[in-house]
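explain this:
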Amino acid sequence: MVKQQVESAVNGKIRCDACPVMCYIADGRSGACDRYANVGGELIRVDPLTIIENTIDDGGKVVAFLPNEPSEEWNGDLVHASTPFVTAVGAGTTYPDYKPAPFIVSQTHAGVDMVTVVTEGIFSYCGAKIKIDTDRFIGPETAKVLVDGEPVGHVTTGEYGSQMLSIGGVHHLTGGSKKEGRVTCDTILRLCNRESVDLVIDGGATLRLTAGCPPIINGVEESRMRVGCGSATIGMFAKQWKDMVDEVVVVDDHITGVLSEHQAGKLLDVAPTGIKIKGRRSTPGRYFQVAEPGTGWGGTNISDPLAILGDFDPKVAYPGLRLLMVSTTGEQYGYYILDENLQPVLQDILPSAVQETVEIVAENCEPAMTSVLFIGGAGGSLRAGVTTNPVRLTRSVKDALTYVSVGGAPAYVWPGGGITVMADVTKMPTNSFGYVPTPAIVAPIEFTMRLEDYRALGGHMDAVIPVERAVEQAERRIASTEDSVWPMDGKNFRWGA
C-alpha cells in the first residue's frame, strides 16, 4: 500500500490532504472518496499502485484486475527481464500544488536516462466523449442527456455511422445543483471505469452504454453500424446489382441512394426507371431528407420503405420492373415487382442472388460499439507536481520532449494552450478512475521525458527515485497490450524521431 504524508491529527483522527475536501479519518475508516484510509495512524492509498510490464515480445496482453482476488488469466510469472512502467493508477494525488508528484521515477531505457512523473490528477474540468455506432435517431443535437433526472451532458454533432455525446464538463460538475454535480461525477466515473450506465435523451431515446460493448437503444442491442451512406452503398455494390434488378434504393436518413440515377449506375449503363423519391435532391442519385430521423429503416422514422416513393413515371416505368429497397445495414430489405398499374408489389421470396447481395451489405458492416474517451485539462496541481515552473512543462509537451500518457495509455494532446488530453478508457487498466466529493474525477496521468530534459524544466530532482524502489511498492502488475505504444519508446519524442 502507498503511504501518504499526514499533516495533522485531531482526536485520534488523521487529516487527509490528498484533495481540497481535507477529510478527518478515524482509524480503520476511509475518507469520503474511498481512496484513502487510516491504518494504524498512517494514511494509506487503498487502491494498489499499478505497473505495466513490457512483455509485448512474448505476446503479453492486459489482464483484467479483480479487486482482492487474483486473476485466473495471470499466474504472476512475468518476464523478469521486461521493462516496467509505473502508471499513476493507485499512486495518489498531488495536493496542495507545491508538493512534488507522488512518484518521480528514473530508469534507463535503450541507453537513455529517462524519468516518469506519476500522479493522479483531480479534474474538475473533465468529461467523456462518447461515440455510439448506430444510425438510429437518439435525439436532436444539443438535447440534454439525463441520468436520474439530472442533466449530465448533451447530444453533439453526429459522425459517419455514429451518434455522439458529450458528458460532463465543469458546468455540470460545479455550476448546477449539488445533485447535478454528484450525478455527473458518478456518471463520468462509471463510464470511464467501463461500467454500464443508463441515460435518457431529452425528447429522444433511452440508452445503456458500456465502453467497448454494443450500445443498447430503447432496450434493443445494436449489432452493426452502417456500411456507408445510401449513396456510398450504391457505389460499392452497383456492379453486383446491375444485372439482378432494375432499380435499387438504399434508404438512409442522411443520403438515400438510387441506382439508376447515381453516377455508378450511369457508368454501368443502368437504364432509367421513372422512379420518384420524396426528398430533397442533391446530386444525381442522392437525396436528402427523405423522412424524419428515427429508429426505422436507415435511421429514418419509417417502417414501410414505399413511404418515400412517389408515383413511377408511366412514360419510363413498365410492369415487371424489379425493385430492391434495402437499408444501410442490410437489416431491412424488400424485393418488389411493379404490377400493371405500376405499383410496387412486395414479393415473399427474394431471388437467391439478390439475397446474397443483401447479406454482403450486412457482412461489410462493422460491429456496433460504444467508445468512451476521457478528456481533461491538466491544471495547476498536475503541472506544479512536475516542475517548479509549470509553463515549461506545457512547452515541453508541445515540443514533443515530454510524452503524456493516461494510465499508461497514449493520450492525444489538443493543440493550443494548456495540456488538454484525451484517452481511450479501454486501453487503460480497469478501475483506473476515482473521484473526490468536491465533486471531481481523479484520473491517472504520467509525464515521461529524458532525465536531462526534466532537470531543464526545473523538475523536483530531490524527489526522483530509481524504478526499483517504486516497483517495490507496486501491488498490481499487468502486461502491456499487443497494440500498445510503450511510453518510453524513442519514437514518441522529437529527439528519437
Q: What stands out?
A: The chain has a mean pLDDT of 89. The radius of gyration is 28 Å. The longest helix spans residues 178-192. DSSP finds nine helices and 34 strands in the chain.
